[in-house]
Amino acid sequence: MNVEKIREDFPILQRSFHGKPLVYLDSAATSQKPTAVIEAESTFYREQNANPHRGVYALSEEATEAYEGARAHVARFLRASGPEEVVFVRGTTEAINTVATSLGRGLLHKGDRVVSTVMEHHSNIVPWHMLRGEQGIELEFIDIDEHGRLRLEELDRLLTKNTKVVAVTAVSNVLGTVNKVREIADRAHEVGALVVVDGAQAAPHKPVDVGALGADFFAFSGHKTLGPTGIGVLWGRHELLEKMPPCEGGGEMIREVHLDRVSYREPPGKFEAGTPNVAGAIGLSAALSYLEKVGYDSIAAHEHRLVQRAYDRAAEQFGERLTIYGPPPNGDHEAVLSFALKGVHPHDIASLLDADGVAIRSGHHCAQPLMERLGVPALSRASPYLYNTEGEIDQLFDSLVRAEKVFAR
Predict the structure, then answer these.
(1) What is the domain-level CATH number for residue 101?
(2) Is 247 a catalytic residue?
């Protein structure tokens, strides 16, 4: 994998800040976009812009073909049974909210239980909290061990006949932990529970096979997967999508509307109210093509080298003064490095690194329950991706050395 060649495909990486070349290490928040994605969106607006589905003129038919072609590509990417299982949404947050809202209207009742985990992103906690407030469902959470792995032995207590949903992230956006989704799904299904998987941090880094995962629903965001913002995917088993009521009403999602009755389209259409983000779907398809061309095996091997480099530099340069949270760098740790440097606040680290052109994230990372569990107010997070180099990892740690000298007490 030629990283320098790949970097040429990302125009933003040519920028400098404060007189220093940009070192972008915040891909877990949003990934940068290759020229192919930028041009795919631009081409749509220049040459194909029209509402899909409703028009009978040629331009609308072109837009429909492009939009539905993107859906078919996503279905292949997920190893789904067909494109009818792919719902386009704004991102993982909207996808999980769609599932929670729809299930709340048709499946979940007072006293039913939803099981999640303490490592979830807020988007896989807050929608279930809302149902608890609105309908009186029970909400329980699986804890983690000292290495940032889920304590799956707790499932024996949490999975009962009242458990209707298990909502779990495939990869933690803070710890980088790769969860055993298939094992969780198999055990959940034994009690008749549905499994909702947050795949926002999985899809950018590894091939997805929703059938092999055992998921009932799977969500991911385009903007973390080299694609545009404002586009994402909810995959659901077709028989479930057929039974679920829509969450929003309006154009596109209806079959017929009368003053005394309304009927809805078959999925996925009934979950896509309003004018869709056609350009975003096309851009997402271009992003998936780019990742598939590079190859997930090559991406994984490259990211493993970067993560190992980070762990080596941390040990050599800081020892016990720097703590990286999560499992050690092996098969169950993706390229997410959340850390604390003794005596230096994460926000101070991020500010000083920015002066060196190094972009990392600091804060609670939309995972406040996890921060409480770890006993920290915030963490710094570096999240490399396929366009980062080992030299940029070195730049990160060189800047951390300077941060320690400036801020440590």
Answers:
(1) 3.40.640.10
(2) no
The counts of H helices and E strands in the chain are 14, 17
Contact 27, 385 (CB under 8 A): yes
Same domain, 11 and 104: no
Backbone angles phi, psi at 24, to 5 degrees: -95, 110
For 176, residues 6+ apart whose C-beta sits below 8 A from its C-beta are 148, 326, 327, 333, 334, 335, 336, 337, 338
Dist. CA 350–CA 44, nearest whole Å = 37
Give the torsion sign (CA, 68, 71, 73, 79). Answer: negative
Structure tokens at 21: 């070349």
Please state the separation of Cα 272 from the chain's center in Å. Answer: 20
Q: What is the pLDDT of residue 17?
A: 95
CATH number at residue 331: 3.90.1150.10
**Domain end among 232, 257, 292:** 292
**pTM for the complete prediction?**
0.96
Q: Does residue 15 sit in the same domain as residue 79?
A: no
DSSP-assigned states of every residue in 310-330? HHHHHHHHTGGGEEEESS-SS
| Options 245, 366, 377, 390, the catalytic residue | 366
Maximum CA pair distance of the chain? 72
- E strand or H helix that includes residue 363: strand 361-363
Which tens digits make up the pLDDT trace of 341-370? Answer: 999 999 999 999 999 999 999 999 999 999
For residues 200 and 333, state if they share a domain.
no
pLDDT tens digit sequence for 69-119: 999 999 999 999 999 999 999 999 999 999 999 999 988 999 999 999 999
Look up the domain containing 99 and give its range.
37-292
Is the same domain home to 194 and 306? no
Are residue 25 and residue 45 in the same domain, yes or no?
no
DSSP state letters, 107-162: T--TT-EEEEETT--GGGTHHHHHHHHHH--EEEEE-B-TTS-B-GGGHHHH-STT
3-class SS of residue 331:
coil
| Same domain, residue pair 186 and 241 | yes
Alpha helices (H) in 331-389, listed in sequence order: 346-355, 368-374
